[in-house]
Amino acid sequence: MPRVVDLLAARAAEHDRDGTFPYQGVETVHEAGLLTLTVGQRYGGPGAGLADTVRVLSRLGRGDASVALLTAHTLLHHAEQARTAPWPAALYRRLLTESRRGPALVGTLRAGTGRPPAVTAHWHGDAWQLAGRAAHCAGAEALAWLAVEARTEEKLPRTGLFLVRADSVGLEIDPAADQLGLRAAAGHDVLLDGARVGTDAALLPRTPVAAAHPLTAAWRQLALTAVLLGTARAALDWSAGRLRGTAAHRRPVGELDARLTGAEELVHGLAARTDADPAAAERAPTVQLLAARTAADTVQQALTLTGSAGLDRRHPLERHLRDTLSLRTQLPAEDAVLDALGEALLGS
């Protein structure tokens, strides 16, 4: 694992600067067996739980946040398949075959919290046809499969995920992304114009309204928070190295380390508890909010301590700052989390 992290870190600045996709980094993660870590044992995989997943993603986040994010999205699909098998058996076998041949990344295109899907699904003949533009799809140029959130054009519309091969007719990548952070993740737009999806690849709820299961949400929240914490740890490690030998900075650096360690323990501890008792997943929104705040504050305070050197593009701290900002958009909005917590205590 340390070798993988070092290899990712060695080229992270180059990919960030040029906005190029980290093919070599993804290949390194694949060769280490980490891209299929959560494939269920019944499918011949390791069947890693949430605790192991969080541990791995946190370490990858120290090397390259973009590669860690792409890994997280793929691991989440395999983990969900191991738990509830939403993918049809034939399609999932195809994904596993592709995963044995090389990196088979799976991306998810979802609308933001409280927003309607940007893609619609219209029943035409014997299949669904997807239309719309989905913005900022991480890894768009290198995905094998996309799980596209879309709303059906039915009398009682349903929202679900549609599994689409990345090379499908009617799917096009618009390479116009120029994001502040996670630049190597190639978060381009995906254009869908008549892409066909059979009924076997449409993961639709039976009723028009269907909330995500708390366990599914917890896996996503804690996995992505782990990437964020890994990025913050890399920022603190660089800053500590830069400030080494300056006695005046011992206490503030120690304070940052204590807070970040506490956040790491929260996330890793809840992940382990959730593996043992799925009911613990209900704590995930609170834990990810606190940990995300701590991670962001750690990077910003590290920048304050290092001064102008931290903003020099020859050093990694400013990249960690940008990646941290972008990673937080992958998590539920703070207002939504706090409103839900307040409503639970006070009522609607």
TrEMBL record:
This is Acyl-CoA dehydrogenase. Signal peptide: none annotated. Pfam families: Acyl-CoA_dh_1 (PF00441), Acyl-CoA_dh_N (PF02771). Residues 8-74 form the Acyl-CoA dehydrogenase/oxidase N-terminal domain. The keyword Flavoprotein applies. SUPFAM superfamilies: Acyl-CoA dehydrogenase C-terminal domain-like (SSF47203), Acyl-CoA dehydrogenase NM domain-like (SSF56645). Belongs to the acyl-CoA dehydrogenase family. Keywords: FAD, Flavoprotein. One of its GO terms (molecular function) is acyl-CoA dehydrogenase activity. It comes from the Bacteria. The keyword Flavoprotein applies. Residues 222-328 form the Acyl-CoA dehydrogenase/oxidase C-terminal domain.
